[in-house]
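User: Round two. Same drill as before: sequence, then structure, for each protein.

Assistant: Same drill it is. First protein:
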Amino acid sequence: MFRSPLTLFRTLAFAEAVSWTLLIAGLVVRSTTGWAPAVTIGGGIHGFVFLSYGATVVLVALNNRWKAGPTIVALVSAVIPYATVPAEVWLHRRGLLEGAWRTKPASDAPDARWYDRPLAWLLRRPWVLFLALLVVIVAIFAVLLIIGPPVPKS
């Protein structure tokens, strides 16, 4: 399904924009009808997709050897409503989403990194990578749910 970094990144960038719509719709429903669960539902979906997009940014940045600048732009774009789509377009135009997954570590390559071997191992086993990322994302999501929503102190 996600045979390249481009397809995975593009899918999550679009999903993040859709999740913003759900969150904003939930806020509108709550303010017009008083039904608070609308924000809980939209916010929960948005939070999970937000964390998934962040994990995708890190994975693609490591695989495609991004420098800090594009990685930070991609991560910050998730905080601004709908900015992940223009960020994806910008990254694609710059050629930063091109190429295949690095499923074979090339220790003699000029751009070799210390994490190439474990990353290649995980990329050769997409279900293991997916489950590992899912466990990490769910754990972070659960901790954030326990902490609770950001509420201004009065």
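Second protein:
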Amino acid sequence: MRFLLFVLLFLSFAYALGLVLANNTEVGVNLLFSQAPTMNLGLLLILCLILGIVIGLLLALLMFRVLQNKWEISRLQKLNKNLQEQVAQANIVIDRQANAPTVEDAVYGATAVHVQDGIDDMPLEDRNAIEPALLTKRKRD
């Protein structure tokens, strides 16, 4: 890898040197609002080439960041949609469980009433001992 990098740097230096030597005329540059001093045409070409490469790299990095953010946003939107579907399914299951009949309703029906035969006449201590064991039966209407 280092050898390849060394070869690329050597070739770019040789190209720049050849460009400067082949274009050795002095040129004045008009920058619309000011005048740059006269310089070698080859050097001007190299400066423009380097400036173009730097600006291109910066724009490429900026565009890569924008694309990376767009990819992340789309990934998060898909994840959000999946999670919303899971929440909706969980709510359906919770509603089904909340509306499901209890064991007592399934056995005796929805119109079950407590049987309290003679409990009102008993002392309070005996009532408290019996109340948890009360049976239910279906109302006969």
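The chain has a mean pLDDT of 80.

User: Perfect.
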